[in-house]
Amino acid sequence: MDADVIIVGAGLAGLVAAHELTTRGRKVALVDQENAANLGGQAYWSFGGLFLVNSPEQRRLRVRDSFELAWSDWQASAGFDRLDDEDRWAVRWARAYVEFAAGEKRSYLDAHGIRLTPVVGWAERGTLRADGHGNSVPRFHVAWGTGTGVVGPFTRSAHAAAAAGLLTFHHRHRVDELVVHDGAVTGVRGSVLAADESPRGVSSSREVTGTFELTAQAVIVSSGGIGGDHDLVRRYWPDRLGSPPQHMITGVPAHVDGRMLAISEKAGARIVNPDRMWHYTEGVQNWDPVWPGHAIRILPGPSSMWFDALGRRLPEPCLPGYDTLGTLKHLRTDPDIARYDHSWFVLTQTILEKEFALSGSEQNPDITSGDRKAVLRSRIFGRGAPAPVDAFKRRGADFVVAGTLDELVAKMNGLTGEALLDADTMRRQIVARDLQVANPYSKDAQIQGIHNSRRFLGDRLSRTAVPHRLLDPLAGPLIGVRLHVLTRKSLGGLQTDLDSRALGPDGRPVPGLYAAGEAAGFGGGGLHGYNALEGTFLGGCLLSGRQAGRAAAEATG
Q: Are 307 and 344 within 8 A, CB to CB?
């Protein structure tokens, strides 16, 4: 055989699985359709968010968290309703993941040299109900180095294993078929793609120059989801989210194409929960894209006002940073606005400077480089917006700036080419909101959330502006940001048991086949259920990749 185990997909989950296998002496063939520059996959481009429960960082900030609270939040968010079938293993993976996040995950990160920034973020605050979707407390930890800092230790492990003769890289090898012999998966066949030295993330050639076949005792599929293929996203778009947008922007590289899901299904594996997906409504076009349609998500603080395409303020819990899919559902099912593919943030320069962050390792050079002093200068003590945010304000196609609301609305209408927004209508809503900031209490849910946020030290220092009137000239200028739906994650995938063995339609493992990472719905075919709590995608790759590697090592020993 060519290896003990073949891993298809050299992203984070695949690299973690390779680490577990090679440290146990197994020989691994790592196969990926992209070149060596793309080792680490889309995790490399991530902000490096990691969901942890009752961490030292939380405790230092006086955040009281527990497994019980986190598991309650997870179950309420996931809404598992297919327990006898598609969610049978997903719910077990979910509990295992929350136990991991509340237990050994912190020491596991430490053991691999992954360090965390001291400020914990409060992402996905939810539906404003104790028994609803959302994080009750801040749990979003960011790794120093962002996504590069999470991927780095496992990339280095792969290179060391290759030097020791335990791992072989097969870059530019596209798997087209899983080889099945006597009911067991025994290898892969596919196409050798033309050499392409494109930089990381850039779309590469699909010219075929030859074929290949590799054999092994087991195959692990860790090839990611479908976010780079808008046709697949639309095919699986669920009715509960209304109609898919005619125009979407893309938050993942083009090679995130979902090919291996259908290929694995043909070999006997089962795809579950394909209608569960995680797309953002705060996407903006990138003025300096890496791949075609490359877009960025705004990571908003709680203070921007959110308006639909007709200039109507979105209802709670459709607030910045609260309920991702709830907001997407509202925008895509309201009959008055479903035909429009955009919405708007309206904010001040003061809010931009304090609250705006951008997803992606390349958009956060201070954290990505590990420069502690630069982080303090730009995010805590600095004046003005962080440089990447300011660049989008100046150069981004979706940003407009004005000294008055009338001028701002005119520029916003100019972006869409339609006079959909009325300045007087928007002014009435903004003034009503502004009247609520004169006191430390309010009947407005968003203003209540701002005060709640500023009670948390981490948000008060770096993520939440002092409450102020949007129409206060001293806080200006005013800024309008056109927001698009940005494709990102598949929450469903190949169904697996707790050893990451791929299961067939009969519920039994497909011999020799494992799945990990997004291809497996981050574990079990969808451990998030219907909603993610953020910071959970990289962690899902870590846990499922680890389980797949350990189980495959045991099976091939």
A: yes
Whether 335 and 369 share a structural domain:
yes
Q: What is the DSSP letter of 134?
A: S
Same domain, 450 and 316: yes
What per-residue confidence (pLDDT) applies to 374?
A: 84
Q: Which helix (H) or strand (E) holds 214?
A: strand 208-215
Q: What is d(CA 90, CA 523) in angstroms, rounded to the nearest whole number?
A: 7
For residue 65, the enclosing domain spans 3-223+258-276+491-556
Q: Tell which residue, 28, 387, 394, 467, has the closest CA to residue 214.
A: 28
Nearest residue to 125 via CA among 372, 321, 345:
321
> Which residue ranges in the chain fall short of pLDDT 70?
none
**Rounded distance, CA 494 to CA 260, Å?**
10
The domain boundary, picked from 486, 502, 517, lies at 486
Q: Would you state the pLDDT for residue 376? A: 81
Give the C-alpha separation, 421 to 342, whole Å. 13
User: Rounded distance, CA 489 to CA 413, Å?
Assistant: 31
Looking at the structure, do residues 395 and 342 belong to the same domain, yes or no? yes
One domain, residues 111 and 148: yes
Pairing of strands 140-142, 478-490: unpaired
Does residue 56 share a domain with residue 200? Answer: yes
Asked whether residue 522 falls in the same domain as residue 443, the answer is no
- Using DSSP bridges, classify how beta strands 509-515 and 501-503 pair: parallel, antiparallel or unpaired: antiparallel
CB atoms within 10 A of CB 64: 10
Structure-token match 């497996």, residue found: 520
Name the token pair of 347: 């904010």
Does residue 282 share a domain with residue 270?
no
In a domain, 414, yes or no: yes
Q: Does residue 409 belong to any structural domain of this protein?
A: yes
Q: What is the CATH number of the domain that holds 316?
A: 3.90.700.10
Quick check: 464 and 354 in contact, CB under 8 A?
A: yes
Distance CA 356, CA 300 (A): 5
Contact 177, 189 (CB under 8 A): yes
Q: Distances in Å between the alpha carbon of 18 and those of 29, 168, 312?
A: 9, 11, 50
Residue 203: CATH number of its domain: 3.50.50.60
Contact by Cβ (8 Å): 212, 177: no
Measure the CA angle with vertex 159, ends 156 and 163; round to 5°. 135
Q: What is the pTM of this model?
A: 0.96
The DSSP annotation for 277-316 comes to EEEEEEEEE-SS-SSTTBEEEEE--S-SEEE-TTSPBPPT
pLDDT value at residue 291: 84
Residue 228 lies in a domain: no
Q: What share of the chain is helix, strand, coil (3-state, %, to 5)?
A: 35, 20, 40
**Structure-token pair, residue 270:** 């089962």
The separation between CA 486 and the C-alpha centre of its own chain, rounded to angstroms, equals 11
Please count the structural domains in the chain. Answer: 2
Q: Are residues 73 and 186 in the same domain?
A: yes
